[in-house]
Write a structure and sequence with these properties.
Layout: H1 7-25, H2 30-40, H3 69-82, H4 87-96, H5 112-123, H6 126-139, H7 145-148, H8 164-172, H9 187-195, H10 197-204, H11 212-229, E1 235-236, H12 237-252, H13 261-278, H14 286-290, H15 299-308, H16 315-331, H17 337-348, E2 352-353
């Protein structure tokens, strides 16, 4: 039900554009951007034709059908012409309007539709925007029902709290999930939603959103804490997406219709809890971030590492660093929590872990 990877769905193309955007926004020069393109484009595959075309009359019939990735992008690019090249109008019509809108499933495909849409707005690119729509359409999955059907929000919960970190702590200590999985990995997601939905939803619905702005700030701190908690032999590939999707939520919230704000937060939170369970609920220790000794490290050092260091060609590493920096810029960083998290992550990073036995290990070029 929950296809956590979008590997054959433009994922490599999207990774390249996201890495280029992140590196540029972190101050990468033309030579570095060229190096990124030449290195990452080696892995791009020839884009295959779809079995047929898509029209305004039947486009929803093909949602979730990955064979139609090219047809969807072609379709949305045609709509761009129809809308006088106003890409935001196309996003508005096909993401937020109608029954079961696409916005309620942007976290599917490991959140790549959400991440890509965020980049479209950040760099004001109509090409990236149409790719994001194509990705949202082809990643569309059953996850939409948790937002489209209000009944799922009425699941009983034994507690209520406004604190994301409290929910994660309760989930970490929930013995129900102790013996479900022997190893982490994306395949666990399907099992969680298929066999353990009720217990997952009891924690999901425990989040009492009474002050959305403050509580979104809390989720960004939680996302940073989750990433740092995952660093054992390497950092967790799935958990880093919680940070980068949180960054995308931050970009989009001021720009999308207000009636979708809570739904966007709640779908991010649902997938956050599911991924946390799937990756064996690592112990969160925010004091390990607060007590980290910077030893003079600054954002300048971190930026230099992101655009010129050993891991500067790793898209997820660079995006994670930038997400932490933008969180600090958005909320202020009086306690240097985000600076310390970014410095600790940059210093300790050795690659990605968290893959299941049936999954490909992420190829990282140095």
């Amino acid at each position: 039900m929950y296809d956590v990877f979008a590997r054959r769905l433009m994922s490599l193309r999207l990774r390249l554009s996201q890495l280029l955007g992140s590196a540029y926004l972190l101050g990468g020069n033309a030579d570095h951007l060229t190096d990124i393109y030449e290195d990452d484009s080696k892995s791009l595959e020839q884009w295959k034709d779809s079995p047929g075309e898509i029209s305004t009359y039947d486009w929803r019939d093909f949602l979730g059908n990955r064979e139609y990735q090219r047809a969807f992008v072609d379709f949305f690019e045609d709509q761009l012409v129809t809308h006088g090249y106003d890409w935001k109008a196309v996003i508005e019509e096909y993401t937020f309007k109608g029954k079961n809108p696409l916005v309620n499933c942007l976290v599917s495909g490991l959140g790549h539709p959400l991440i890509h849409l965020g980049y479209a707005y950040e760099i004001s690119s109509r090409e990236v925007a149409m790719e994001a729509l194509g990705l949202a359409a082809t990643c569309y999955s059953d996850l939409h029902k948790y937002l489209d059907d209000p009944g799922y929000a009425e699941t009983e919960t034994p507690y209520r709290t406004s604190s994301p970190l409290e929910i994660l702590s309760r989930l970490q200590n929930d013995q129900y999930f102790d013996d479900i999985f022997d190893a982490p990995g994306g395949d666990n997601m399907t099992v969680i939603f298929r066999d353990h939905e009720a217990q997952l939803l009891s924690h999901w619905n425990a989040w009492d959103i009474s002050d959305p702005t403050k509580q979104f700030q809390d989720t960004q701190e939680a996302a940073a804490a989750l990433l740092l908690a995952s660093g054992r032999n390497g950092y967790d590939f799935f958990i880093v997406h919680l940070l980068t999707t949180s960054h995308a939520v931050r970009i989009l919230l001021p720009l999308i219709p207000s009636e979708h704000h809570i739904a966007l937060l709640r779908q991010w939170w649902l997938v956050t809890l599911a991924i946390y369970i799937a990756q064996l609920r690592p112990q969160i220790d925010i004091d390990s971030i607060k007590n980290y000794d910077l030893k003079g490290k600054s954002w300048t050092w971190i930026d230099d590492e992101a655009v010129g260091g050993k891991w500067s060609l790793d898209a997820h590493f660079v995006k994670a660093v930038r997400a932490l920096k933008e969180s600090a810029r958005t909320w202020g960083d009086k306690d240097e929590l985000y600076l310390k998290a970014a410095a600790k992550f940059t210093e300790e990073f050795r690659g990605w872990e968290g893959f299941g036995a049936s999954e490909e290990r992420l190829e990282v070029r140095r």
